[in-house]
Amino acid sequence: MNKIYYTKPSIGEREAEYVLDAVRNGWGEHCYDYITRFERDFAAYLGVPHAMATSSCTGALHLGLRALDIGPGDEVILADINWVASAAPVFYVGATPVLVDVLEDSWCLDPAAVERAITPKTRAIIAVHLYGNLAALAELQALADAHGLALIEDAAEALGSEYRGRKAGSLSSFSVFSFHGTKVMTTGEGGMLVTRDETLLKRVQQLNNHGRAAGDMRQFWPSELGHKYKISNLQAALGCAQLEHLDEMVARKREIFAVYREALLPALPGAAMNPEAPGCSNSYWMPTLVLPEAQAEQRDHVLEAMRQVGIDARIFFQPLSQTPVFADLPAVNTPVSHGLARRAFNLPSYPELSRDDQQRVIEVILASLSA
Ligand SMILES: *Cc1c(COP(=O)(O)O)cnc(C)c1O
After folding, report:
1. Cα separation, 351 vs 106, whole angstroms
2. What is the dihedral of CA 324, 328, 333, 335, to 10 degrees?
3. Confidence tier at 243 by pLDDT (50, 70, 90)
4. Torsion of CA 70, 71, 77, 79, to 10 degrees
5. For residue 336, is pLDDT > 80?
6. Ligand 1 contacts CB of residue 234 (under 6 A)
7. I want to staple 18 with a disulfide (CB 3.0 to 4.6 A). Which of 219, 237, 260, 327 is the partner?
8. Which of 212, 210, 213, 193 is nearest to 201 (CA)?
9. What's the 3-state SS for 279-345?
């Protein structure tokens, strides 16, 4: 039986053509052509004026936090249940991440918990749209406005999702995306920062150019200590091709999710999957099954059963507060995050996943769970 991966990029002829063109011709005065085009097309896709491509989402978030002058003594609020990449840049700038709980249905920030965590030191809220689900942006924006905070979207997992008619990642001070090989679209490694704020764009561009000021005629002259998180023209060529069929890939992921939902939820009373709140559209980066409490202890058994028949299975993220990275910070009380981490796992989803393979996944899950 063929192996079923939990995720796999969808690479067509167009990708090969653009990358070959970049590797053959994308040098000298053409060395930024695909990068410029990728940034322009990505911004247009989201409906925002500005985008800057980077070597990773982590790097994009680091640059954005620096551009907001967030640093030592400042606090940044984000959810406890997350991949560490959303929190690490807060440490990089010397600020303190404050971890709060999520909502049981969206798996994203609980606005009430965010409000309770706001102190005079709070500077920003990082709303991560987990597994394609949308964070409660209107409520979070209201809190940000009331307290003079920046709202940042980490939309790495929500490319193609929509919140009240607008694309995820187009609604906040700035947003970041990832094009790691596991994400909705890929450039191998890569990221993007998008913003409506031209001043912020100029700031992150300078920071990403080792602190060299635009228009400064002096060569090799950093005006400040910067960073270098640039994407290559080769990767951007891949990104341009991926963008051309992003809508199809998202549509396919939505179909795959619907098949899982229709097969699994009626058969598993009390289980939940990625929600789609009214007015939202979920691109379902990772279809995720949350088992009911009564079956929670069977989760790892299901994952093992999947592995034995060659199906990649992945546990839900871990509460970051439990990891050594947060060992020196005060303990937090995040029961919803802990519950999800015990009960949930991700299901394979990628555009080329066949109907038969998906059926295999469904059958293994149902067969290995006892009531
Ligand atoms: C993948 C991911 C990142 C990190 O992306 P990189 O491109 O690997 O730096 C950050 N945030 C979220 C929510 C992610 O899923």
Report:
1. 24
2. 0
3. very high
4. 110
5. yes
6. no
7. 237
8. 193
9. CEECCCCCCEEECCHHHHHHHHHHHHHHHHCCECCEECCCEHHHCHHHCCCCCCCCHHHHHHHHHEE
Show the tokens assigned to 11.
């690479």
pLDDT at 1: 82
Model's pTM, two decimal places?
0.97
Q: Is 321:84 a contact under the CB 8 Å cutoff?
A: no
pLDDT at 370: 77
**What whole-number percentage of the chain has pLDDT above 70?**
100
Reported as a pLDDT band with limits 50, 70 and 90, residue 371 is: low
Atom of ligand 1 nearest to the CA of 183: 1
The one-character DSSP state at 265 is: T
pLDDT at 13 exceeding the cut of 70: yes
CA distances from 302 to 182, 295, 325, 357 (A): 22, 10, 29, 17
Please give the Cα distance from 268 to 344 (Å, whole number).
13
CA dist., res. 185 & res. 236, Å (int): 12
Closest-CA residue to 133 (of 358, 261, 351, 287): 287
Q: How far is CA 99 from CA 63, 133, 178, 334, in A?
A: 21, 19, 22, 8
Is the CB of residue 162 below 6 angstroms from any atom belonging to ligand 1?
no
CA of 64 to the centre of ligand 1 (A): 14
Domains defined for the chain, CATH in brackets? 13-244 (3.40.640.10), 246-370 (3.90.1150.10)
Q: How far is the CA of 178 from the centre of ligand 1 (A)?
A: 5
Specify the residue with its C-alpha closest to ligand 1, atom 3.
Answer: 85
In the chain, the largest separation of any two C-alpha atoms, in whole Å, equals 71
Q: What sections of the chain are H helices per DSSP?
A: 13-25, 33-46, 57-67, 88-92, 111-117, 137-147, 198-207, 233-244, 246-264, 299-308, 335-343, 355-368
64 DSSP β-pair partners: none
| pLDDT of amino acid 88 | 98
Hey, how many other C-beta atoms are within 10 angstroms of the C-beta on 48? 20
Q: Is 242 helix (H, G, I), strand (E, B) or coil?
A: helix
